Amino acid sequence: MTNSWWEIKISCDPTLEELLFWRLDEFGCQGMVTEQKEELRLIRGYLPQVRAHPLDLAALSLWIEQDAVTMGVEEPKTSWHLIDEQDWASSWKKYWHPQEIGDRLLVCPAWLSPPNDTERVVLRLDPGVAFGTGVHPTTQLCLESVEMRYSMGKKGGIIADIGCGSGILSIAALLFGAEKAYAVDTDPLAVRATRSNRQLNRVKSEQLLVEQGSVKRLASMYPKGFDGIICNILAEVILDLIPEFSAIALPHTWGILSGILMEKAQPIADSLEKHGWKVGTLWRRKEWCCLNIRRQELDDD
Ligand SMILES: C[S@@+](CC[C@H](N)C(=O)[O-])C[C@H]1O[C@@H](n2cnc3c(N)ncnc32)[C@H](O)[C@@H]1O
Question: Range of 12's domain?
């Protein structure tokens, strides 16, 4: 039997783009693309039919209208229809192209040949139905932070990737010089996607270990504690996870946290401080931010 997917289309003012990416992500979309249409943006989001009832989609379109009213821009046009899995794969793949991120990385869709004249580190990716193409600003902020850490600091280190999605952050960390990564995600489809992207990038399975779960699972996979923690999940989830970070940290552990809307940065920073972490830098892209943190005990890395 063919699996069906909802394709949600939103034609909107460009100022709404990031907010709507966040809305679709919250709603459960597992692939999102955006296209410039003259003065407007056409955003497409995809999720399995079983994950949303038409009533949920109607509610989503109301939230989107309210977002536009709050921001004082013209109301977007939202529509949705069902497509089969094969169409889903080809629909959004058409709009996703190789993308330069930061100073050194090039994320290249698995179905395209990477350019052979690039000096960038090429990360090949087929996210399948998992989140993490590099299009979302929070993924980009994390990738840039990982790049910066490895261009400035020493190579090596054992990394924990919480909420790995397609595996993009673990694979980037390994390509930039991490020794080993342990990745977890509560979604089994993300675990599957990370394993296939590991193979696509010729990363050895003993260098990137992937399992279904969260912080507790990481603690049992590698009880010695990690040198670095990367976590790009929504702020509400991060707030719940912060108390558990100590169980997987060492005195020198650094962290990169994103998925955080600017207005949620303060409660996250407060909770981090309470649990023995210090915020070093905050990087911002539109309404999203990324915190680079380290354990409180040490003044320097
Ligand atoms: C925003 S995506 C990030 C994917 C990828 N790391 C990236 O940066 O593009 C968040 C991922 O976290 C997973 N997730 C949500 N809650 C989680 C939790 N409590 N523990 C582990 N993973 C979780 C979701 O299934 C999703 O794949």
Answer: 4-93
